[in-house]
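Milestone 3.1: sequence recovery, worked example.
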């Protein structure tokens, strides 16, 4: 019997996991690992390697049958076999995987599997064959833009950091990911933690830093567990520490769980929190590349941004530019949720249309007709035009923003008013209280939306709400308060009749 591996995908179901472990106990050359949900999986899925046959919606009761049949010669258990085979044709087949290439395929807790699949080669190449300036040039040439929301050119940010004077420089991987509907960074951390670490190391080398931090959302316990192990394993293999791989480059990485709060993902609030203070934003300028952690030059990059870097260094800027669009090269990991048949993560070239994402990747609408999508998370905008190109410029042209790439799809049966109410509540809860427009504005908007939801409002309330949101955009201290305007404005543009139908004159 050849060596066989069962990879649990989808929801981390302890029942299926422990049953699998029990079923294979004592069998030679068989193992079970926890992989991850990477899109298009409903319920618990199971992939069996080396064939890669995938079962969907596996209940605990069917685990013994699947194990037995597969051990008897790769026979599929038809009622659960969904017709797809991993990893070469991970559904939908149009996905282009760069940052997710190993997610669900290798054991994320094994540094050996990462190395065997080409991991840490980019670090070796950067340290041995490239100067820090070469690395920055390559990243600049790739056109990579920050995946944390703002889309700032990554290479340029690295250059600013490298050129800033300071006693020491820092790199921070922003893994705080608290945008509602966004779960791409967590999947990278849980599914391929060494890729993030390799990206941080290359960034550290490029900007001349000696200390890195991964600031991770505290609730992401599996990510924390795996990152901790990955950092320890990388230290043992001399990828982190003094004189890395005998190249003279020394760099340490510390994992810091966030105390919680959406605002702690904002880069300057994050830095305050790292310094042990209350997480509230600082005035900008100075920007972190000039004065960041302990007032030293600091590079803050999103997890997905950094996870792109090893591939860019290995395969080159031109290769990277062969995906995506001229101004937004590469791929984007979209978190798709809401009323589509398939929900989850889809990595696709930048610039696919909303129509492609909803119908080709998401499998179309589960129930009803397409009405609109909230693109860019809670701080994003509702977009009704299915021909919108999903890249930084395309979404902006339609009055929205790509943000973190979360796409909440709403059918004509969805409750758009309920969605906007929960967005309002989210901002009210997460407002850090530092500035009045945001602290008070989010409260008023939530009060109005509660009345709209309960059918206890006037049409004038809608105009007041829009006016307050607009003033928050103009006067709030940081983008948290400033961004409330976009979902409110676009919701009223698209769903005004629904809102008005609940209001009196
Ligand atoms: C309220 C708020 C929350 C944010 N949360 C995150 C986050 O969780 N992760 C992230 O990478 N960026 C977040 N950002 C953006 C960061 O401030 C920063 O722009 C980003 O980490 C820079 O990385 P990038 O250039 O790689 O995108 C947030 C911004 C705001 C205003």
């Amino acid at each position: 019997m050849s060596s066989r591996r069962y990879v649990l995908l989808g929801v981390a179901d302890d029942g299926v996991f422990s049953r699998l472990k029990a079923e294979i106990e004592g069998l030679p050359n068989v193992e079970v690992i926890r992989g991850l949900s990477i899109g298009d999986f409903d319920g618990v899925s199971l992939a069996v390697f080396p064939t890669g046959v995938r079962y969907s919606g596996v209940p605990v009761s069917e685990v013994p049958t699947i194990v037995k049949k597969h051990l008897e010669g790769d026979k599929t258990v038809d009622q659960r076999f969904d017709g797809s085979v991993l990893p070469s044709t991970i559904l939908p087949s149009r996905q282009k995987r760069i940052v997710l290439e190993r997610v669900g395929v290798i054991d994320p807790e094994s540094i050996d599997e990462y190395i065997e699949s080409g991991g840490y080669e980019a670090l070796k190449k950067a340290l041995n064959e490239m100067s820090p300036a070469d690395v920055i040039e390559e990243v600049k040439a790739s056109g990579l833009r920050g995946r944390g929301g703002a889309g700032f050119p990554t290479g340029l940010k690295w250059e600013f950091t490298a050129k800033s004077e300071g006693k020491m420089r820092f790199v921070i991987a922003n893994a705080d990911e608290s945008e509602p509907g966004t779960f791409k960074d967590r999947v990278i951390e849980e599914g391929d933690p060494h890729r993030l670490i390799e990206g941080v190391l290359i960034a550290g080398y490029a900007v001349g830093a000696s200390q890195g931090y991964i600031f991770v959302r505290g609730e992401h316990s599996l990510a924390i567990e795996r990152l901790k192990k990955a950092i320890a394993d990388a230290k043992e293999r001399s990828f982190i520490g003094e004189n890395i791989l005998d190249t003279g480059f020394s760099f340490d990485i510390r994992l810091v769980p966030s105390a919680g709060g959406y605002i702690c993902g904002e880069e300057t609030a994050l830095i305050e929190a790292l310094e042990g203070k209350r997480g509230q934003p600082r005035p900008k300028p100075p920007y972190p590349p000039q004065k960041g952690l302990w007032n030293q030059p600091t590079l803050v990059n999103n997890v997905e941004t950094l996870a792109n870097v090893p591939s860019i260094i290995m395969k080159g800027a031109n290769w990277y530019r062969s995906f995506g669009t001229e101004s937004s090269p590469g791929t984007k990991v979209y978190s798709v949720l809401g009323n589509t048949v398939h929900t989850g993560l889809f990595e696709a070239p930048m610039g696919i249309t909303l129509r492609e994402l909803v119908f080709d990747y998401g499998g179309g609408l589960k129930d009803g007709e397409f009405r609109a999508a909230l693109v860019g998370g809670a701080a994003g905008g509702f977009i009704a035009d299915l021909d919108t190109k999903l890249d930084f410029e395309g979404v902006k042209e339609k009055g929205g923003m790509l943000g973190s790439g979360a796409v909440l799809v709403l059918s004509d049966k969805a409750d758009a008013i309920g969605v906007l109410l929960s967005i309002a509540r989210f901002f009210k809860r997460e407002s850090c209280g530092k500035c009045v427009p945001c602290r008070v504005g989010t409260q008023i908007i939530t009060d109005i939306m509660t009345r709209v939801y309960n059918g206890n409002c006037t049409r004038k309330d809608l105009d007041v709400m829009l006016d307050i949101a607009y003033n928050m955009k103009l006067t709030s201290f940081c983008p948290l308060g400033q961004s409330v305007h976009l979902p409110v404005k676009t919701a009223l543009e698209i769903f005004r009749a629904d809102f008005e139908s609940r209001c009196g004159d």
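The mean pLDDT is 90. The longest strand covers residues 331-338.
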